[in-house]
Amino acid sequence: MKKRLSDSEPIPETEPSPNAQSPEPQPAADPAAESKRTAKPRKRLINVLLNCLIGLFILLGLYFLIKPHWIDYKKSQIREELISVAEATDSTDQEDQSQTDKQVVWVDPDAYKDADEEYDYFIPDEEGNYIPATDPSSTETSPASQLEENGLVALQPLGVIDISKIGVHHPIVENLTYVNLRYATAHYEKTAAIGEIGNCAIFAHRSPDDGKDFNRLNEVTAGDTFTITASGYQYTYTVEQNISVLPQDMFSYFNTPRTEPYVILVTCDPIPTWTHRMLVIARQTAVKAV
Length: 290
Known about the structure:
With 290 residues, this protein is α+β, with helices and mostly antiparallel strands. It has helices at residues 31-88, 178-183, 250-254; strands spanning 105-107, 122-124, 130-132, 148-149, 152-155, 157-163, 168-174, 185-187, 198-203, 225-230, 233-245, 261-269, 276-289. It has an 8-stranded mixed β-barrel.
């Protein structure tokens, strides 16, 4: 029979087994290691932000690199549309022509602006002196005023000018305005019409980019020829002069009396100060139906 221990008897202490392992003491926390552990997520966040910032700068760089080419592309599309409309408009009776959707191209006046877009527009004051004025589209009161509809303006193509010597094949639109010059050469509506006796003034920008608009007009010299196709006729002009004058002096040439049809091509001069206006004065020497 097992002996029962009384409640008063002490419980014998048991000695630990020689094979039992005592618990290892916990090492003290290392502040440096703890700091490294907390720094890793912070470093990853900074790297992500830096990568995002670099990506943003790359995107902005691509935007500013591509934007001018995109604008040129969209302008060229509108220019080609103007040429197509001009070539499709086969009528020699301009009195019967009306500005319908088939004879105009509608554009947003605020789209595809150039940073250096400007031109000098002058009107006579009460004493007959020519002074600078605002965009003529805001003050023009003649029947040639530019059509506007739903925030868009109508470009009215009159014809196409070809100057093979300098690679120009551009539409000509009616009215000298900022918007018109953005896409085409523009007929100054206060001068003679194409093919009429008098001086027909046609303006275009002279961009620093080689080959754009009238950029190379300085290469056109006396004896050179160019053509304008409009209203079913092709007019050939022979250059008599290429001169540079002050802007306000243009009008003495526009108002020179003529007994034959003349065209005066106008652009800024010289690059890049634009202090003068280059005038290429040409006489009509041939005309044929097309």
